[in-house]
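dude i think i finally got it to work??
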Amino acid sequence: MTESLLSQNEIDALLQQLKSPAGASSLSAQQTVAAPQRYDLSRRRRPSRQGLPGLAHICRRFAEGFTEQLHNLVGPHVEVSLLEIQTLPFGEYLHSLYVPTSLNVMDLSPLPGSAIVAMDARMVFRLLERFFGGGGRYDSQPGRRFSRAEERLVAQLLPRLNESLNAAWRPVMQSHFHFVDQHTNPAMVRVADRGETAVVCRFLCSDVVSGDSECHLVIPEASLQPVRERLARRGAAQQRHADPVWTETLRRGVLDSAVPTRCTVAERQTTLRAVTELAVGDVISLGSRDRSLLTAAGIPVARGQLGVKDGQLALEVHSLIELGEGQNSTGGQHYAG
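look at this
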């Protein structure tokens, strides 16, 4: 005989509670508050109500850097821009890909896990055409494997892509991303379970002649957890860091700008009467010859002595003037025309 789960006293207490009006109303209120909800255990997808503006800014920085890398590789006809950022199950994303697709697995150190950089076949075909001087058009059979030339082009793209991606993440953290594996069949990629949520950053690769193609950065949502708070803060990824290309361009532009220079041989204060009485042949004593002053845009920069070099008047610099201090610092002697 089976043993009862509840004793007779417990059963009587429950029946008495149901007969009581206060107990019935309390039970009804509890049923109203704790309504059952459906939950799919197979997908393990957590609702994400918090946006990631920092990740969007990182993607835009990556698009700018990768565009410049492509310009250096295939010419100025290709532009990369951020299309959208999606959140969807990893298996659903893999199911949306065609074969072949260049699927490159990237280690996300110091973040946990790995990511995927996917380049669709159209992007690879068109960039190869551009690389060899073509117009970016392609006529390829669907589903064929990448050729040796296309695989070599992808091998040249990956270091440039990796450099741009690490530079884009620098305002958030010092990343050490690097590629560890390559595939062309989506079924062979295993960076997350099919039911896990992935963040898909879609980039549009636009060619002015041949049209558009896409490049994707796919990161498991779990890999972003260590930096999720920083990515969720507005402005966290917008910290300005030195751009070496822009810095060098600005430096060259400033150094090549035209600056008016003047050399004052000597100065002497006199009276207006003496000026009005000047006549041809008069001699004005100006003092020693080593007091010539060189100014650039009205700012004193050096002192020296006038001389002649190669038949032309020149200034031999004896000392430099430190800006803002008005003090002289002795420098090497040379001629400045």
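Residues 43-49, 327-337 have pLDDT under 50 and may be disordered.
im so relieved honestly
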